[in-house]
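A quick aside before the break. I want you to see a complete sequence-to-structure record at least once, exactly as it would be stored in a machine-readable document. Don't worry about memorizing anything.
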Amino acid sequence: MPEVFHYTATKERCEERPGVTFGHVTEVALLEITRDIKRQLAEKCGLTPEAIKENHEGIATAEQNWQYHSPIKEGDKFSVKVESGRIKMASFWLIFNFFNSKGEKAATAGVKTCYFDTKAQRPKKIPDRMREKLLSMEQN
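That is the input. The structure line, written in tokens, reads:
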């Protein structure tokens, strides 16, 4: 079952840079949201910033693919449904589906993510607690 996260298209999320607003959420803001969700999912699995540092673990983005369908306008409440897929020993995909306030698909991102040993500088087996979470979110 997908995880669902809710956001608002604030003025800051619609600015290309301070003072330059396009009236819709920018690509940079969408990318930041995917990073925020990955952090939240990691913390739900016990991978807090402290634990990551202490255990020399990390989650690295290996690849990203984006498709844009329609804008999320400033002021919109929008949601992001996140599913997992292609779960391997040390990597997995997260699929982010962004929906605007009308329920229309606004964007889709596929993010290949690797579980990483930061000390050895190489992929590491995904811990069981994270694998269980990923399996519960797997696409059907």
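Two observations worth writing down. The first strand starts at residue 3 and ends at 8. The CA atoms of residues 51 and 57 lie 8 Å apart. We'll return to this after the break.
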